[in-house]
Amino acid sequence: MSKKTEQQRLEMPAHPMPVFRRNQDVKVFMGAGWAKGTVNQSDRDGCTVYLSQLRKTTRVRDARNIISL
User: Fold this and answer.
1) Most buried pick, 16, 33, 39, 47, via CB within 10 A?
2) How far apart are CA 47 and CA 26, in angstroms?
3) Which of 11-15, 33-37, 60-64 has the lowest mean pLDDT?
4) What CATH number is attached to the domain comprising 40?
């Protein structure tokens, strides 16, 4: 699988959100870069992810800002 450039990532549609399984490992794009996390809850409107390195929970509502590992 080839890595997408930042421009290719931003050209993707923001919706629909993919539905992830609980406890699935994902990467979330935060302002300073990508952070690894674990899915707590996922539905068609967004995904709640616990970021262990930052010790916080965040809600992702844009499909461009989350990728499965």
Assistant:
1) 47
2) 10
3) 11-15
4) 2.30.30.140
